[in-house]
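Why run this: before we spend reagent on co-expression, it is cheaper to look at a predicted model of the complex and decide which construct boundaries make sense. The entries below are exactly what would go into the expression plan.
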Amino acid sequence: MELLETLRADARLAEWLRGLASEGDLRVEAVLPDADELPDVLLDLSVPHEDINELVALRDRLGADEGAMTLLARCVARFVRDMGEIGKGWEPPPFPASAGALGRLFHVYVFLAALPYVRAHHRERGVPDEVSRRTLADLGRHMAVHRRRRGTGGLLFPWWIALHFHGELFQLGRLQFQRARLGQRTGGAIAATGAGPGPGDPCLSLHIPDFRGPLSPAACERSLALAREFFAEHYPEERYEIAVCHSWLLDPQLKRYLPADSNIIRFQDRFESAYEETTPDDGVPIGFVFGDPELPVEELPRRNSVERAVVDHLRAGGHWYGGHGWLAL
Ligand SMILES: CC(C)(COP(=O)(O)OP(=O)(O)OC[C@H]1O[C@@H](n2cnc3c(N)ncnc32)[C@H](O)[C@@H]1OP(=O)(O)O)[C@@H](O)C(=O)NCCC(=O)NCCS
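The model came back. Tokens follow.
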């Protein structure tokens, strides 16, 4: 079955396709690198070697599927329309397993076709090539995350890569920084301290990518210094005084298990707490520490201090919560 037919069989996706068609501006060009160029483009995006042959082979199948190519063009047009604007990117729905390999990899092709647009945005802003390259290489990292969890190429969270390919997020050393706005709760907590900014004001939302070695204090310092310089230079009209972080790494309960000089606790110590989370989310630490949020707690190994922390806490009946922190830049 062709891709579009499969997607239309799902009521929610059929609705999404109709919305996309009604907004569509097909004057935006959506061009994919040809099969000969594609491997180099993928390697520059850090796409794992294991995934390259499949992406090259499917590229021709995609090119021959007129419906899928129209969908690709509509997705790209929608995605690049507000390039660089915060919060106006793209939240594509996941495609069902019945959409096969093309469905599993479709969003990768959308990002490949959007590549010239995000690169142009980076150039317009004077973003150095190496920052651009390392930022967009998160595509490959996330394909590795997909492969670790599912054993195949793909993207578990296309909306996440959409941030990078929309000019909203940059990798600067160890950390990633997302141009964002303070929400009600975090912004309210900051305003209450008299620190200045409040809800709706610009902030940098900080993310800690996997597969990049330890989160040493020196690496964090360097990243924060790079961010101060980078955003002042390339987005001077947006004044970033605050960085926020929403992460399992900021759950204060970790202090009960990890030594004060561990990287995670030293990272926590940089932040003021904005508010306390009340909804448990055990899958997040399980996913980040063991690779899959669905793994049964009874079977998890306890090989190092973080593994022991996550497992012992859950086995004792506890839960993990995301922490919400902020710091003045
Ligand atoms: C954030 C991260 C780099 C911290 O690692 P770190 O710098 O080694 O942190 P610590 O010094 O506090 O680690 C203490 C111990 O736990 C281990 N550890 C830390 N994070 C681990 C992880 N995600 N998986 C397995 N083991 C981990 C370390 O190897 C170390 O072991 P040891 O004490 O037995 O030598 C690491 O957890 C990581 O890569 N996480 C994935 C990304 C992530 O969670 N991002 C946040 C998204 S919201």
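The chain is about 50% helix and 10% strand. The first helix runs from residue 3 to 8. Bring this page to Monday's planning discussion.
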